[in-house]
Amino acid sequence: MTYTEPATAARTIRPGGPEDTDRLCGLLAEAFQDDPLTAWILPDPVERAAALPAFFRVFVDLSLAHGGVLVGGVGGDFAAALLYLSPAGWEEAQERDEDVQRRLAEAVGSGTAALFTILAMQAAHHPSEEPQYYASFGAVRPGEQQGGWMTGMLGLLVARADAEGVPTYVEASSPGGYAVSLRNGFAPLGTEIRLPDGPVLRPMWRPARRSGA
């Protein structure tokens, strides 16, 4: 993506790059520290806090290589981020599966079995009928949740998908994420992903829309 969307003179949503990796990982780790999904993978909060930066580095690297990242912030401070894979990115990422699994296992340690359970269930539900943009992780820094960041970033992604004539897929892991997805034109897709004694992921789909539709 080659655009920037200013909401005010200091507030922007822009494409992220490799130079942003460390700060992106810190933001994602902070935002997901108390998330039910990461708590299910690593119940111990101290272990979870230590593991999440390396865990998210794997997905930031994948997104930068096979899709992209959107970064929202005020001035130089990061407030939110959206990771996504391009229409070809899901299949491209699968070709790196062995390396990805190794890095993830190194990152989460005792949470490896739980994480791989999630990944297997996500893969089983992932739509394969047609290529799509896949919004894999959205994060907003604590205290910034009412800033409209995720609505803005997801809106930019689906606008790009519409321009290219392809759909968009997301798995909502929270009521807030579900509501944001609905506002951006997504609808529930298939069955929910129910983790054993854990949280629920809600697959959602947005067909491409013609301009003005």
UniProtKB/TrEMBL annotation:
Domain of life: Bacteria
Stored InterPro entries: Acyl_CoA_acyltransferase (IPR016181), Trichothecene_AcTrans (IPR052523)
A GO MF term: transferase activity
Keywords: Transferase
Protein name per its UniProtKB record: Putative puromycin N-acetyltransferase
Biological source species: Actinokineospora spheciospongiae
